[in-house]
Design goal:
mainly alpha
């Protein structure tokens, strides 16, 4: 058996298992979980959830680091969510005019760069500004992911892919706070 034969058979086994698990978890269309686009969009959607979820277990320690009250530190959560309140109204028409891919890419870049910059911020005001930018990235990307799924799939397949995306988000919602708390011990 050559390397390529082994590689091909391991991919078949991996996809067979994933297809089987997808069908059990998500119904008859669940094997769509093997689609690389579904996987990429689900991972991107879950990644975007981390920005808000990660703050809860860290608020008191960050407040101490910045020398502010825990209540004031809560402003960082509001700063992240504030752009969503305003931008979500305009993202759909903007995506229709300039395209979904540029918004998704720019949104993920803004989100990621802001998130990394926050790690190095020692100034509370700068952290608030970076959280606003991170919220802008989230606001650009999240509705576009949902729209791309609607563009690429229809009927039961679309419903299944949206279910896979939401399930991925919920997994992130459960795992990230536990991991952050555990790493923080």
């Amino acid at each position: 058996m050559s390397f390529s034969d082994h590689h091909d058979s391991s991919m078949i086994n991996k996809n067979s298992f994933l297809s089987y698990a997808g069908a059990i978890l998500f119904g008859p269309e669940g094997n769509i979980i093997c689609d690389s686009l579904v996987q990429a969009l689900t991972i991107a959607s879950g990644f975007l959830m981390v920005g808000n979820i990660i703050m809860s277990p860290l608020v008191s320690d960050l407040a101490e680091m910045y020398g502010i009250s825990v209540a004031k530190m809560g402003i960082t959560i509001t700063a992240y969510n504030l752009p969503t309140l305003f931008l979500m109204l305009f993202i759909g028409p903007l995506a229709d005019n300039i395209g979904r891919k540029p918004l998704l890419i720019w949104g993920l870049l803004i989100y990621s760069i802001s998130g990394v910059a926050i790690i190095f911020s020692v100034d509370f005001t700068l952290s608030i500004l970076l959280r606003i930018f991170q919220g802008v990235g989230y606001s650009l990307s999240t509705p576009v992911i949902t729209a791309i799924i609607g563009d690429m799939y229809s009927g039961a397949k679309e419903a299944t892919v949206q279910g896979i995306r939401v399930s991925g988000n919920n997994i992130v919602n459960v795992i990230i706070p536990v991991c952050v708390s555990w790493l923080h011990l």
